[in-house]
Write a structure and sequence with these properties.
The chain is an alpha/beta fold. It is built from nine helices and 14 strands. The protein has a seven-stranded mixed sheet, covered by helices on one side. A seven-stranded mixed sheet has the order 7-8-9-10-11-12-13. Helix 5 crosses helix 8. The radius of gyration is 17 Å and the shape is globular. It starts with a strand and ends with a strand. The chain binds zinc ion (2 copies).
Amino acid sequence: MLKVFPLFSGSKGNCTLIVSPEANLLLDAGFSYREVLKALSERNLKPEDIDAIVITHEHRDHIGTLLVWGRHIQTPVYAPSEIVDNVQLRTGMSEVHGTDGSFDIKDIHIERYRCSHDSICCFGYKFVCGNSRFACVTDTGIPTNEMTEFLSDCKAVMLESNHDEDMLKRGEYTFVLKQRILSPYGHLSNAQAAQVLKQLVGTRVRTVILSHLSENNNTKELAFNCAVNACLECGAVEGRDIDIYVADQYHNEVCICLD
Ligand SMILES: [Zn+2]
Ligand SMILES: [Zn+2]
């Protein structure tokens, strides 16, 4: 049994709470420490109740909380081996375990998918507890068959839907930044997320949380409609065959329960 609470999601910071019968995990910790604390306390949790923090990559919107977190409590951190030194140096967290493949934290088995992103390295993760499976893939520039396969045996997935390409191209970002986001080492657009979703229709996936939206180059409506239409094209009706949520940067009330 797994419960998934997306707490904060977007270009300003990311943090998801994953709860099993034995463990409370945070997937990334990249939002304001005060806000993360508040979101945890709303769910009757304190930092001491968090057994481990699993990190996808070293960008600030994924590790920023730890800068302050580490001054209060030394929670074990699990990060790809390639970034252990970087995370330790920048956050002051002392117990950073390097991971090189699958690993276990209490009753949760964790598998990973290598993302294509302009960081030292970046991984999406799958959390397995009994028959419950949840996966999250964000911060990746290209949809791949391997990614679809990775997601397809999970009942719930968090999938990046970062930007609307037209909004990004017409927007005020510099040419270099636009190129970075659009590159195979940037972020998935709504259209790329839709491409993945089409391949997920008919698999085990029943709940999709669109995540890591850009505040400047996307709207929740655009991301949602793009995903709903993609599913519809494959014969899946939102609300009947598949549930689609859009994670918010600042406030999320949704809790996904996986038996
Ligand atoms: Zn990143
Ligand atoms: Zn990010």
